[in-house]
Amino acid sequence: MTNRDIAERLEEIADILEIxxxxxxxxxxxxxAAESISHAPFQITVTxxxxxxxxLDGIGGSIAERVMQIARTGTCDVREELLEVFPxxxxxxxxxxxxxxxxxxxxxxxxxxxxxxxxxxxxxxxRLAGLKGMGKKSEERILEGLEALRSLSGRxxxxxxxxxxxxxxxDLGGPERVRMCGSLRRGRExxxxxxxxxxTENAGAxxxxxxxxxxxxxxxxGETKSTVIITGGIQVDLRVVPPESLGAAxxxxxxxxxxxxxxxxxxxxxxxxxxxxxxxxADGQVIASDSEESIYSALGLPWIPPELREDAGEFRAARxxxxxxxxxxxxxxxxxxxxxxxxxxxHTIEEMARGAQALGMEYMVISDHSKALGIAGGIxxxxxxxxxxxxxxxxxxxxxxxxxxxxxVDVLSSGELDISVEVLAQLDWVNAxxxxxxSQSAAQVTERSVRAALSPHVDVVCHPLGRLLGxxxxxxxxxxxxxxxxxxxxxxxxxxCSPDRLDLPDTYARQAAARGIPIIIATDAHAIEHRGNLRxxxxxARRAWLTRDQVLNCRSLEALLQWTGRGSAPLxxx
Length: 574
Ligand code: DGT
Ligand code: CA
Ligand code: CA
Ligand code: ZN
Fold this sequence. Notes:
Elements: H1 3-19, H2 24-38, H3 50-54, H4 61-73, H5 77-85, H6 89-93, H7 101-111, H8 116-124, H9 136-152, E1 156-157, H10 158-171, E2 179-180, H11 182-185, E3 190-191, E4 194-199, H12 205-210, E5 215-221, E6 225-230, E7 234-241, H13 246-254, H14 257-269, E8 273-275, E9 278-280, E10 286-288, H15 292-298, H16 314-320, E11 334-338, H17 349-358, E12 363-366, H18 381-397, E13 402-410, H19 421-424, E14 429-433, H20 442-454, E15 460-461, H21 479-489, E16 492-496, H22 506-514, E17 519-522, H23 534-543, H24 557-564
Parallel strand pairs: 4-7, 11-12, 12-13, 13-14, 14-15, 15-16, 16-17
Antiparallel strand pairs: 1-3, 2-4, 5-6, 6-7, 8-9, 9-10
Helix pairs in contact: 1-2, 1-5, 1-7, 8-9, 13-15, 20-21, 22-23
The structure holds 2'-deoxyguanosine-5'-triphosphate, calcium ion (2 copies) and zinc ion.
């Protein structure tokens, strides 16, 4: 059980209580506890002392006891009691975008909805539209939400997969002994299952996996392969091979399948054979097997980074000697998109800055939401200028780090920016985002994006497609038109690192960069710990074949400001 799992169980309790119309303070106390646990500075285990828990914000004795029960058994008495009378399928209904506990309770009472399929049926029959607070539009949105949920079809987001896999690797002997493979190693935005690999020398890895606290069931426990299902219904495969086959197996289980097929063809062309044990000649003598490099090299190729192994041009580039030197997380020198308590962030400007500095960054743009985004506490012109004063103070307190003045300006449904150009002109950096009217026609959303990109005040268009993985499909933007506008308007495009966005997606980012449009990789952090999402955006960038030169925020502060055309010195120094 990770802290995240425990927090999810607490959230679930709060959801059920809320659907049942339970006391609001009780609902709130479980939600607060969940929030607190997910940010706890230590991992909760069966040996954690109750005193350590009650020292956390919002956790009293009774919830601490439930938390310990969950840590020990995966559930607790309150949850079990609730589930005895509560249709568990209603929890799935809550995962549908636009359905919260209040709606779920309404559908349950008035339309006999108790799981996803009865929800879909009710919506198709038009039985939801007539309910209180509902209408034809909101009923349609529920059908769209169901569709978005299905589009993930059992896959999980890269962020969750990566965190889970890291924990497993650590508990199975560490990264020297256990290697990640599959779509995870290739950095895909969603992951079907987790593939791990170890050698027979790491005896006991199989048992360590099947006995792991995250494991819910064990479909297969063999000498050379174990398969388990962990919390969240995620499948994990662990393969065990002799140490001399590690390179061949790592390559094989990293895939992609298409890449493997091409590799085998290259081997066959030479009269050889390639499989997960090695590369063999016609007599079955091993040519290479213990490292990936040796296998690629025997086939006349340089080592190909996993993110490129999609049979999407990597073989030609490898033969030509034109494989890109892919960007790495350490190349990123600043974060151009983050929030603070001025809008919907949880940390102050100074806390966010110190967090970024601790990760080795040199600068950060503070870009809170603008006034049109009322629900996110967006700020108006006057507040932006007040915030700028606070930025000056923070900069005085910091050494070797600079906070830049910025905004995430909303692109209104009309296509206008919601902050006056007089104020935009006074900022160091302007992010522009579409947050509303995402289901407008292709012509409308294209027009809005294009106008934003053409604006002389806008530096980058953020999360350009507006998609949320598993929750909302991308806007129907004419991407070619947006690229042209970026070219003309001297505007960059963002790869947003939030795991449910990863927007631009890899194929789009590759196309944009090939056209010479500068790319930004930014976290959109709403809290210090969201900076950890950077690696997911970097994975997307690597899958997009990007080099350091193509990513603007790999540049120094001076070079970045020069690019904006606002002069080389930050505003506060002029
Ligand atoms: P996923 O799990 O759907 O996100 O995608 P992958 O790529 O992780 O696919 P998975 O888990 O089915 O298999 C892991 C790797 O093992 C895959 O990338 C390539 C290799 N592999 C699996 N089955 C086959 C196969 O039938 N032929 C070949 N050539 N390779 C395979
Ligand atoms: Ca997989
Ligand atoms: Ca697999
Ligand atoms: Zn943002």
